[in-house]
Amino acid sequence: MEISEKLDRFFSEEHIFKSAVSQLRSLILESGLEETYKWSFPTYTLENKNIVAIGKFKNHFAVWFFNGSLLKDPYGVLENAQEGKTKAMRHWKFYTKEEIDIKRIKKYIAEAVENHKKGIEIAPVRKKRMTMVVLPELLQTALNKNPDTKKAFDSLSQAKQRDYGTYVEEAKMEKTKISRLAKILPMILEGKGLNDQYR
Prior knowledge:
alpha+beta
């Protein structure tokens, strides 16, 4: 599907925030940014660099600023897009169309554009490559008990192995760890990665 078709579908489909996101679109396009479509959302760029994007969800809609942590945020409206995972991205959530403050939004967009023109940005930090994958005991025990699953696991890339290990390890309760383990073992046996559907 062409980018223009994806954009048309995003803005024309029936949704509780249909007119609100269209209003945001108009505001952003007035700034002279180029409209494209990435990660299932309308994204606005300058010199091929992502500046802002629009998202719509069940209970809210939002404007994302890719280097939002560098904005002054005088009204205290920006939130970390994914606490603990994103350093630069911030979003401004809205729950009704009436919350859209045209002057304020334009001010934030103008600052984001100006920062880009000045070369002010947060450079992505490359994670150091880990050479060895350390698995949680629960997963290691399950693999040791099932040679076919272990063989399938060993044939996965280190990144996919690490994803599975982290998925089990990050569960806070033991019963959640066990239920996660039960979910992933068949996926491992099929040679799938935990996040293959998002890659």
